[in-house]
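Example for tutorial group B:
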């Protein structure tokens, strides 16, 4: 137990972490092009927040939350998703008093007691955005466009955008009634969970993965059949914007998403090619009642969240892995304790010039140190043995050519600086 991690969570080790860093940099860059600003909310919140926002009949709240009582007997939950915390922060910090809309993004860990498998974990990472304060269809389209843009820039192919409208408090009751009437006529063919959902949250039946329920859902009345004029117009306008920029989508009347807070637009980005992991990489939509339900003024919102583990797995499976392990430019190889001190000072001087340096700290033999320098793929190895020390110079080995030169210690930093710039320029040409 002591040396094994709990089920469903991962260490991100050197060698993998560079992919994460590159993906994060890619995400931040693109968000800044769309003028979204980062928000960092806490990892845990009052449980009540998720009951109110994600919804008491959602799978997340019913089965998947990591909840506990803290020492002050407060009900606390590790965040299972990012939107609720952002909405809470928006209300609490009065961001509504700032310019509208607020365009916020986040990157960070989420926690769900899910069934672990490839692409599904108990601690996983999402990035996502929330636009609060605008109900304009162009914002829905911008959020969808952002997601597609981000994946396309990574070179991903075989993406599909599924799109639906889930209606609003005006038209949803009639739709829910139609769903209940329809499914009640086929109750014996529903799975047990859906029998239970029938009167509590019929929309969720559309989301069920059981074959019997899926077959029934395919024939069920659609939200568009029942959408009010306002929702129909909104949906048509969103589609108009997407058509304008050539973003292809498929209408999917069973797409309702697993969270209760959506109104009007709902969308998912799915990988059509099997990658061995789960194929839904991103989901989102509009949630015009969420801020109000969480105790704020009636404020419209729209956003999405995407899974980073899944995205990295898919990138790898398509041969598009990003991020490179970084190597130092210089390896310092001192041969005795006195030389180690000189190397230590030299390392500091080189790092002051922004040159990445590694030095031996284990008193290894010359052979072992050269092996280490090779493994690290440095451009230069600097040997300081007794001869060098007493003579006030160092032996510098250029690793690419094997050429060795004796350089006076007081000229060493400038020599390496020039050499490394040369290597870097050569690499870039
Ligand atoms: P959701 O918040 O459920 O709409 O999920 C949005 C995205 O987060 C999904 O499309 C996945 O990419 C990712 N995701 C959700 N749950 C998990 C999980 N348990 N493990 C890994 N990724 C997940």
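The residue assignment follows.
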């Amino acid at each position: 137990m002591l040396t094994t991690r709990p089920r469903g969570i991962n260490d991100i080790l050197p060698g993998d972490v560079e992919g994460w860093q590159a993906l994060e940099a890619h995400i931040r860059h693109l968000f800044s092009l769309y003028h979204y600003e980062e928000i960092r909310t806490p990892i845990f919140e009052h449980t009540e927040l998720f009951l109110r926002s994600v919804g008491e009949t959602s799978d997340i709240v019913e089965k998947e939350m990591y909840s506990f009582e803290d020492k002050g007997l407060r009900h606390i939950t590790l965040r299972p998703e990012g939107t609720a915390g952002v909405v809470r922060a928006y209300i609490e910090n009065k961001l509504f008093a700032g310019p509208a809309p607020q365009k916020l993004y986040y990157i960070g860990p989420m926690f769900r007691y899910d069934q672990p498998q490839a692409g599904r974990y108990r601690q996983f990472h999402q990035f996502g955005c929330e636009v609060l304060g605008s109900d304009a269809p162009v914002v829905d389209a911008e959020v969808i466009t952002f997601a597609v843009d981000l994946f396309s820039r990574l070179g991903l192919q075989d993406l599909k955008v599924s799109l639906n409208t889930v209606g609003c408090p005006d038209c949803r009751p009639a739709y829910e009634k139609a769903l209940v009437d329809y499914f009640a006529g086929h109750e014996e063919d529903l799975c047990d969970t859906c029998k239970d959902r029938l009167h509590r949250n019929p929309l969720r039946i559309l989301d069920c993965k059981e074959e019997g329920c899926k077959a029934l859902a395919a024939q069920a009345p659609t939200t568009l059949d029942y959408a009010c004029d306002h929702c129909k117009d909104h949906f048509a306008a969103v589609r108009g914007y997407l058509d304008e920029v050539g973003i292809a989508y498929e209408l999917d009347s069973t797409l309702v998403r697993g969270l209760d807070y959506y109104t009007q637009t709902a969308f998912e980005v799915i990988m059509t090619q099997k990658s061995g992991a789960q194929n839904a990489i991103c989901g989102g939509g509009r949630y015009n009642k969420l801020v109000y339900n969480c105790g704020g003024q009636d404020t419209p919102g729209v956003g999405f969240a995407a899974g980073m583990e899944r995205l990295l797995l898919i990138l790898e499976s398509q041969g598009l892995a990003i991020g490179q392990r970084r190597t130092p430019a210089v390896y310092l190889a001192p041969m005795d304790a006195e030389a180690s001190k000189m190397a230590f000072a030299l390392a500091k001087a080189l790092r002051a010039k922004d040159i990445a340096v590694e030095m031996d700290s284990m008193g290894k033999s010359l052979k072992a140190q050269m092996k280490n320098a090779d493994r690290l793929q440095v451009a230069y190895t600097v040997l300081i043995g007794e001869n060098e020390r007493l003579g006030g110079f160092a032996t510098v080995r250029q690793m690419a050519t094997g050429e060795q030169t004796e350089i006076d210690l007081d000229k060493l930093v400038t020599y390496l600086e020039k050499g490394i710039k040369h290597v870097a320029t050569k690499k870039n040409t």
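Residues 81, 112, 114, 119-121, 124, 126, 258, 280-283, 305-307, 309-310 surround adenosine monophosphate (CB under 6 Å). Compare this with the pattern of hydrophobic and polar residues in the output above.
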